[in-house]
Amino acid sequence: MIARKTLDAINAALEAGQEREHRSHLGASIIGGPCLREVWYKWRWAKKEFFKGRMLRLFDRGHREETRFVEWLRLIGCTVWETDPDTGEQFRISDHAGHFGGSCDAVAIGIPDLPPGVAALCEFKTHSAKWFKKILTDGLCSAHPKHFAQCQTYMLKLGLVWCVYFAINKDTDELHPEIIQANPADGARHLARAGEVIRSETPPPRVSMKPSWYQCTFCHFRGICHFGEAPEKNCRTCQHSKPIDAGQWLCSKYNYTLSKEEQLQGCTAHTFKPGI
Ligand code: SF4
Ligand code: SF4
């Protein structure tokens, strides 16, 4: 017999406790996505994402697995920093006046495939058997451009030349560490993409005009983008809001710098951005 009530209770508890707030900055983890319009919708708080219990467990598992990767690296004699010794916090990158950023998993020296003493960015990711096989066969750049973009952006901003991307197959525990060399031009291209999203007053072009396009079928903003669903009303979707210095936002109607709480709230003068 399936313990249905138990399962439902776990799912309900996870779903109730999930982080529901929009993220202030544009994250390095999404800038390599195939559709800039999707990234823009997220950055402009068009629609909050809500995840089911299974997805939340999946994210949590990925996060918890990071500790294992670090343990394995230490086991083979690597020195691993999970936090920046200068700040005591995760290694963070920031650009575009504080509107773009991200935190990387770790930095290590002593990676056996790299020259002694060379520091490398470490990214740890768990994958389904299908994705794992694809990465193994095609390499990260071709199989998972979003993760590749994230690695290149971090390397550029942290001044590192090497990255070790660790993929693990969740079904079999097979491990695939891939060495990636920094390509500053590629990193700069992703940073420029982020700038484009941040500065754009209107939604960038669609990856496809067909809602049945495979990337659109997985997109959280499909309804807004293709079917006229109303976006959320908050300052980010209002035509009077504007990103300014130091990661702050200005309401040009009232010439007022908005706190995050005020942005979430919006006001009665809210007017949707054209084309949203
Ligand atoms: S529905 Fe398709 S075109 Fe629209 S934002 Fe999403 S991925 Fe892009
Ligand atoms: S007019 Fe209102 S909703 Fe629009 S940016 Fe200003 S405070 Fe926000």
Explain what you see.
There is one protein chain. The chain is an alpha+beta fold. Helices cover 38% and strands 18% of the residues. It is built from ten helices and eleven strands. The strands form three sheets. Strands 2-5-6-7-8 form a five-stranded mixed β-sheet. A three-stranded mixed β-sheet has the order 1-4-3. A three-stranded antiparallel β-sheet has the order 9-10-11. A hairpin with a 4-residue loop joins β10 (249-251) and β11. α1 (4-16) crosses α3 and α6 (145-158) packs across α7. The radius of gyration is 20 Å and the shape is globular. The structure holds iron/sulfur cluster (SF4) (2 copies). One iron/sulfur cluster (SF4) binds at residues 35, 37-38, 41, 206-208, 215-216, 219, 221-222, 225-226.
Arithmetic mean of pLDDT: 96
Q: What oligomeric state is this? A: single chain
**Beta fraction:** 15-25%
User: Helical segment tally?
Assistant: 10
Structural class: alpha+beta
Summarize this entry quickly.
The chain has 276 residues and is α+β, with helices and mostly antiparallel strands. The protein has helices at residues 4-16, 36-43, 53-75, 129-138, 140-143, 145-158, 184-199, 214-217, 222-227, 260-265, and strands spanning 26-27, 79-81, 92-95, 100-103, 106-109, 120-127, 162-169, 175-181, 241-243, 249-251, 256-258.
